[in-house]
Amino acid sequence: GESVGLHLPTLSVQEGDNSIINCAYSNSASDYFIWYKQESGKGPQFIIDIRSNMDKRQGQRVTVLLNKTVKHLSLQIAATQPGDSAVYFCAEYEQGAQKLVFGQGTRLTINP
Amino acid sequence: NAGVTQTPKFQVLKTGQSMTLQCAQDMNHEYMSWYRQDPGMGLRLIHYSVGAGITDQGEVPNGYNVSRSTTEDFPLRLLSAAPSQTSVYFCASSRRGWDEGNSPLHFGNGTRLTVT
Fold first, then answer.
1. Chain centroid, CA B82 distance in Å
2. Pairwise CA distance, residues A66 & A24, whole Å
3. pLDDT > 90: what percent of chain A?
């Protein structure tokens, strides 16, 4: 069945380094993908999205890359800061199902 | 503009009790939904609504009821609480339903429910 998963459950990076969080999806019909950030005790917060007719989209310090050939999505965070510590979820829009399918999340920890 | 507001923030129930989790949004969003979040399982859709008077089931609807009498409110009812319903519940809304185009969900800060 369709699923969205993450390659790594945890990721530790040094402050100032770039972070890359990966996500695999299995539904080739999915056409919209979103990255969310969730801080402790809060709801998921939208970071950036990308549609399947694009392979790259940039925001402020964040870039999302989409490789439809291998069904892979990544979130790159430039110059990681302590405030970036959180759990990051990718989510996939299932055509016709009217729902977002979420991955299990990657916890990003920033080392000083 | 408060966004998506959920109440209560915390709740403890005994098995068999019923309760309603409240969700309200002030963004005039047509689409609203309820998710539960359990450790290691991400977010799973319980119920959703594409507009007032319209609701539908998500992937884990059993034990929960919803109604959508107004655009702003989307309460989630637990009919007879069970320990398996111990979870964090999130309400989310967006500008339009998915079949009319895509827009990112806006989440509330969650209700932490424990059923003993």
1. 17
2. 10
3. 65
